[in-house]
Amino acid sequence: MAIELSYKKTFLHHINPSMKFIIFVGLFIGLLLIHNPNILFYTCIGLLLVYFLLTGYPFVLLLLFASPFLIIFLSSTITMMLFGEGQTTLFQYGVIHVTEESFYRGIHLGMRSIVFGLLGLLFALTTRPVSMFYSMMQQLKLPPKIAYSFMTAIRLLPMIAEEFSHLKKGLKIRGMEYKKGIHGFYQKIQLFTIPVLAQSIRRAYRIAIAMEAKQFTGNRDRTFYYQIGFTRYDTYFVIFLLATLLITFYMSEQLPILQVKDVLSL
Amino acid sequence: MSTIAIEKLRVKFPEEESFLFKDFSLSIRKGEKVLILGPSGSGKSTLLKILSGLVPKSMEIPIKYTSREISNSWGFVFQDPDSQFCMPYVDEELGFVLENLGIPHDQMKELLHRYLVEVGLELEDVHIKIERLSGGMKQRLAIACILALQPNTIFLDEPTAMLDLEGTAQVWETMQRVARDKTVIIVEHKIEHVIDFIDRVVLLDEKGNIMMDDTPKVIFEQSKQKLKEFGIWYPSVWHEYRHAKTEINQPINQSAETLMKMEDFIGYHHKQPKIEVSNVEIKKGDWISVTGENGAGKSTLLQAIMKLIKTNGKIDYPLVKNHSDLYQRIGYVFQNPELQFVENTVYEELAFSLRKEKLSEEENKKKIEAQLKDFHLLNEIHKHPFQLSTGQMKRLSLATVTITSPDILLLDEPTFGQDARNTFRILEKLTRLWKEGMTIVMVTHDPMITELHATIVWQIKQGKIIHIRDKVNLREEEEVGQVGDRIIL
User: Fold this and answer.
1) Which of A187, A229, B285, B333 is the most exposed place for a label (fewest CB within 10 A)?
2) How far apart are CA A78 and CA A90, in angstroms?
3) B184 touches chain A (CB under 8 A)
């Protein structure tokens, strides 16, 4: 079961993965500290533009990937609106009671989850795991032992998926009928996890031995098949990022969508 | 320096009562090509890992010896093509080995091309996913990887056990070319292809004692009986099996009742049509052998019949009343039996198969024990299916499927990867079931099995049955694809 997606490489694919990683982690933390929904709104717009225009994947595929975030947006927004606390009533109908505070906080929370989701997707779609770990070994001095463990584990994933589908067929052949409800769930876990885990552990152990047989020692002094450094694309990216941040802040000051500056101090 | 030797080796696995090797000594000269033979469980594979130094350096097995000389540069090819690579692409895997050796980056591209050419893997683009290679190609990639280590000794641990005939031939042809001046130590069950390559055979018994240590000629002439006992595929084994078998299979039951009929039947994999059958019948008493190259669609055909994949077109099962009955009336044994076990003991595994027959506990027990006895598994009755050896697992999966006496038995490579003894055991068992009236459809790579057992041969090519040979009525027909335009692959 091979999942291969076709895409065009854009400059986002050429950025040094370690730098990309650090910047994205920085953005994640930074966004946690922002309580102004206007900034989040413009960040959201900016990220959507980057996501749809600069990742190099077909539009339909991008929509498909992003669709879960719409659900997360709606669910977190609505939950916060309905159950959040507040003083100023905005809308009341029976048990439904929405206050102004909870309304804004809901919108804010929803946008934040979208932004987080998009950032994660952006990183995942434009970074090959192998390149990331090679870069981390070279720029961030990640021990090869850890880097190769991760790369091997990623290689195992499609094999596990394939085994899973074989197992499903195997159980069908045996005429397995699953119980209903929670018991069925427990039964499935039992039937599927044990064989898949047993096989994976065995396979991982064999691969580890094969790696040592190929004289892998985990030492730090090694050469690299992929030499990953910094290029002009990294400069472009930093400039692009700074510009986007500036525009976002500027727009949120000049053209605020919501009349709220801080969702915490409502 | 360049010899490999071990003196007074002792190995004892914690859970075992007795020693596996007791005061075992062996010495191998530089450049020698040695084949280690023995029954399963004789520790051949462990011995190979000890001689290479992988035990105890990478694998913790308690061993003791008075002296040991190991090679300072060696390569190891393992049995399973899918669990010896750590990177997703061919070039990256070779790159990984070159990195381990500290080869400068700018020499890597050229070197990895050279090693790939040496093993006959001339790929258009070396940046190709390893999972897209065939088994034989994967094992040749493994050889390319060890060539990069520039070894003077090569260890081969049943490198072709999971390959078909073609892959096996490719691997040994490659080894003969690249390992001429190297020391080679081999563990292998299928010796037909290695026989010209080796100049010494070490024969072990169950406890890991050396029974014989001589040239191949002497061993194969003098200890054929032992080889047979140990289940080794020595060159004339099929010949003798055929000799012992008095009759060619003749359908016992000529009622010619149709069990299954396919018309313009198509099986899909990932929305692509992978197998197309224009018009074929399976009659009671047939023993059909489905043959063809790797990826031709043989297993897909079986899966389509069982409705495990998406299908289209017409398939009739006159005997099957409703859908849930399908899996009762048609038994299917996977190539990898491990994936069709559902219970925690061998006994429960069979009880699960019988659950729909609603027998009393007494009857159940009687039936299960008889079946286990029949499949030589009675001693394993309380074990977990995963604790069994591969041969035992295969027999258990056959036992679970046949205990309900289905009308048709579908088998995907029933003897694949089995030693000679197990293979013949399985074939004998199948022959008996068939004589009792079971219809068999089996996918097999082995021309000898087709030759000796099948009554009808379906040859599949690029997703179509291109040729049907009825061995009993001596009739052949070329299947003309009527659905032809929807091309497969």
Assistant:
1) A229
2) 14
3) no
**Contacting residues of A for B60, CB less than 8 Å apart:** none
Q: How far apart are CA B296 and CA B233, in angstroms?
A: 27
Q: How confident is the model at residue B91 (pLDDT cuts 50, 70, 90)?
A: very high
pLDDT at B481: 44
- How far is the C-alpha of A38 from the C-alpha of A15, rounded, in Å? 29
Query: Cβ contacts of residue B74 below 8 Å, gap of 6+?
Result: B52, B53, B149, B151, B152, B153, B154, B155
User: Which CATH code, of 3.30.70.1130, 3.40.50.300, 3.40.50.1980, 3.40.50.2300, is assigned to B258-480?
Assistant: 3.40.50.300
pLDDT in tens, A113-141: 999 999 999 999 999 999 999 999 999 99
Q: Do A225 and B82 touch (CB under 8 A)?
A: no
- CB-closest option in A176, A203, A225 to B92: A225
Best interface-test mutation with A: which of B51, B71, B86 has the largest number of A CBs within 10 A? B86
Cα distance from B327 to chain A (closest Cα, Å)? 6
Q: What is the 3-state secondary structure (H, E, C) of chain A?
A: CCCCCCCCCCHHHHCCHHHHHHHHHHHHHHHHCCCCHHHHHHHHHHHHHHHHHHCCCCHHHHHHHHHHHHHHHHHHHHHHHHHCCCCCEEEEECCEEEEHHHHHHHHHHHHHHHHHHHHHHHHHHHCCHHHHHHHHHHHCCCCHHHHHHHHHHHHHHHHHHHHHHHHHHHHHHCCCCCCCHHHHHHHHHHHHHHHHHHHHHHHHHHHHHHHHHCCCCCCCCCCCCCCCCCCHHHHHHHHHHHHHHHHHHHHHHHCCCCCCCCCCCC
Backbone angles phi, psi at B305, to 5 degrees: -60, -40
ipTM above 0.90, yes or no: no
Alpha carbon distance B229, A24 (integer Å): 64
> Which SS3 state, helix, strand or coil, does residue B426 take?
helix
Residue with tokens 């692959």: B489
**A195: nearest CB among B98, B327, B339:** B339
Does residue A203 sit at the B interface (CB-CB below 8 Å)? Answer: yes
Q: List CB contacts (< 8 A) between A226 and chain B.
A: 95
pTM of the model: 0.87
Class of domain B2-242: alpha beta
Q: Is B3 helix (H, G, I), strand (E, B) or coil?
A: coil
d(CA B40, CA B187): 11
Residue A175 C-alpha, separation from nearest chain B C-alpha, in angstroms: 6
B106 versus A7: which is more confidently predicted?
B106
Rounded to an integer, what distance in angstroms lies between the CA atom of residue A126 and that of residue A262?
33
Q: Across the interface, do B95 and A225 touch by the CB < 8 Å criterion?
A: yes
For residue B136, what are its two tokens?
């034989």
Per residue in B340-354, pLDDT tens?
898 889 999 999 999
Reduced to 3 states, what is the DSSP secondary structure of residue B28?
strand
> How, if at all, do strands B4-11 and B67-69 pair?
antiparallel
Tell me how far the alpha carbon of residue A151 is from its chain's centroid: 18
* Helix, coil or strand: residue B481: coil
Listed by start position, the domains of chain B span 2-242, 258-480
Q: Which chain B residue lies closest to A201 (C-alpha atoms)? A: B83
Nearest-CA residue of chain A relative to B72?
A215
Tell me, yes or no, if B87 comes closer than 8 A to chain A by beta carbon: yes
Q: Is A219 on the interface with B (CB under 8 A)?
A: no
Structure tokens at B294: 């790797």
B480: distance to nearest CA of chain A, Å?
A: 31
Cβ under 8 Å to A: B residues 51-70: 52, 54, 57-59
